[in-house]
Amino acid sequence: MKIILNYLIIISFLLSLTDEQKSRINQKTNDDLSAPNFTLNVIESRNFDDIKSHIKDIYDASKIFHQQNKIWPSKIQQLIDKELLTISKTDSVLLSEWELILELSNSENKDKIIIANSLNESIKVTYNTVDDYFSFITPDENNLTMESSITLDSLKGKVVLINFWATWCGPCRMEIPDFNELYRDYNKKGLEVLAISIDDGRDALLNFKNAYNIFYPILYGNRSEMSKIQMEYGGIYSIPITFLLNKKGEVIRVYPGAIIKQFDPGMYTDLVMNIENALLSK
Predict the structure, then answer these.
(1) Residue 190 and residue 181: Cα distance in Å, rounded?
(2) What architecture does CATH give domain 3-33+156-280?
(3) What is the SS3 string spanning 197-212?
(4) How far apart are CA 159 and CA 276, in angstroms?
(5) What pLDDT, in 10s, does the model give residues 139-191?
(6) Rounded alpha-carbon distances, angstroms, from residue 183 to 124, 161, 190, 230, 271
(7) Are 41 and 219 in contact (CB under 8 A)?
(8) 8 A C-beta contact, residue 263 and residue 53
(9) Where are the domains of the chain?
(10) Is the Cβ–Cβ distance between 244 and 271 less than 8 Å?
(11) How far apart are CA 250 and CA 33, in angstroms?
């Protein structure tokens, strides 16, 4: 992996790794540019894509119903009777888990909302059709997250942004809105954002995620695991620091310091440009 640092120095004016860090990264892989692999615990938001997609289908059918009948439907059965909505086996399972309520007022001045109440959990999903916006209501915010583990090598084929951070790090907190924006805009196009906390535990991260509304996955491990990963990535002595990987798992850019669009638009623009180029590459 001897060429990784020379390569990165040439392509990135933002790179600021020491020779010692370069040497440590070089020793951890047989591939010249590959980022060292790791497996860590992950906390991420539940996306509720199935029910959200079903709600969107219901609203699309409701709009056709309104065009045909000059009123909005009050029940899903009206859409089925008019053959505007078909219920597949998957939908039937979904409907056995959610109660759907149409609040599509015929008054132009009132919001038109579709509500899904979970029959198994204390979760309420509301869709504001005017603003095209989903809201989630629950007495326990942990209902909106899920926990598992993730291995970096399993993400080959995606562009990966690895951000080393911690909850106590002020600049790290300031990056969150911009990383949320990147995740929202590019995740479905093939970008994964992994926020690796260097020394926070599960409970602290759960509370932090809920408080700061982080959309992208948060990774953590025990002290031994985190020390090993930090050393394998050249020795992470200061945070935040961010690595951009292409679809082959190769490091193509390193960004030391906070990436904040408002304070350093040049760095942010450089990151977006390299993400888009990496997404277009094979």
Answers:
(1) 14
(2) 3-Layer(aba) Sandwich (3.40)
(3) ECCCCHHHHHHHHHHH
(4) 9
(5) 988 888 889 999 999 999 999 999 999 999 999 999 999 999 999 999 999 99
(6) 24, 10, 10, 24, 13
(7) yes
(8) no
(9) 3-33+156-280, 49-140
(10) yes
(11) 5
